User: What shape does this take?
Amino acid sequence: MEDTFASLSSDQQQQHLRKIKNDYQDKENKITRVSASGAVFLQLNEKRSILHQVDNNTSIVDNLGEIDEVKTTELTKKISTALEIVNDFSFNTTALIELKSDTNDLVRVTEANDNKKPSLSWSPPKPSSINNIDIIPIVEDTNDDILKHHNGIYWRLLFLNLVILWAYQSLISAQNYYIKFFKNDHLDFWGTVSAGSAMFFLHIIQLYFGIYKYGFTKRVIPGFIGYIIIAILVMAFKNKIILIIAFASVGGLGTITESPVYGIAGLFTTGAFTQAVQVGSGMAGVLNVSANTIIRLIVLLVHSHIDQDQLSFYLFMSVLIILCLIAIYVYYRLIHIPSVNIRINQQMTSFKQEKFGNIVQLDFIENQLSFWTLTKILKTHLFVQFYVLFITLLLWPGIPCGATNNGWFNKGGKLWWCSPFIIGSYNLGDLIGRILAIKIHKYFSSNICLVSSLLRTLFILIIFYRHHISNIFLLILIIFMGVTNGLLATVTFMVRPQTIRGVNNCERAAYLMTAALYFGIATGSIVAATLSLTHIV
Assistant: This one.
């Protein structure tokens, strides 16, 4: 190389140097700041290099030094902007990025530790380097503004899931309406069967086709709008087929809207936000049946010319419409919280990285685990989630609602037995269990959860003794069943195996857990309906 260069004339040497310099500048790595999403993207358009030229020629070395200086100046401006964003906002990184120039790093995002926040730093490249990319996963950084917005995130997630479950609970709690107008149609069974089946199958379709990759807003907002349409339809048409379709639609929309709420909670390593979603589920049942009871009592006292059960049902569905409109507003407030917005943008970026063609996305890439790998890691958690909900839906609400009434419930309280007493007792216990989970979840291992879920099998005795025990004792059993359901269902969501790390993996794990939940609801309600309709119980 040295002999070849030396044989060139002075003009040819200078021309050769200019060509090297232009190639270096034209084919450099591009670092682009995309501020619209509040994140920093480091995009590598092309991997380029310059072969080292003869290093004993003074003119060549000097000229390459000038190239390095030009490169350094340009990169300084670009990287300082990225560094400022990363460090000022304590950017929550999901990948450690290194653009290596031989032994010197071009750009480095350092991992957070107990005494130091994550930061971005860089050093100028040697002109002789060939750029390579290494991606090393790290644990999610928790040193952002989560603490500042913790309560806002917590209560918004709680409220959103409360409204989502309110739609389902509204149809469950209206048992007096079904008993009066559809007495022999077994809507207490068929309703839960259609809702549970729709939840499970639509959730599987969602995962299989990757619908969850289309974003959170595109699923949540249509879900709430769908609830409003369903509420209007069931008020406009008094028809059992419409009601069963409404149950199925609410179940399907519940999958579309609830799974992204669990997904948002799963973007954080803290279990508190998942617990908020679970408590919202429990509160929906208690507040819903309470609202239904209050409306029925008010209508009873007013002595309206309209049928009391019909009017209370209309008012009840109207509350659902109002709550859905409020939930849409709350959702938009949630996703504009900085720490939530950053994580959502990270997630959506990782989903879109395969669409960039020859542009390699660097910042949010992590070692993504497959659903099968996650299933093997979560096998105990998934079984517990499934079995807890299976036992619950096998026994509630249909079987205790059909128990022989005694005392006041056999007289004037017959129409009040199923709702609010059976429905309300379970929902109260479920809420207590979900709240209790935040206090004692640290005492639960996977094996304790497994054994506890298997012990719930004893509740099946309710099937055989419901006609022979006091209604009050049966209500106590239903409350206890609710407590264990809420406790175990919440704990298994909160206690995440340490091997699951990174935004993508945490969210996908949440989707798997939600699938187990829906599968338990579907199979439990189907078995219950089969036992009832075949008169086995």
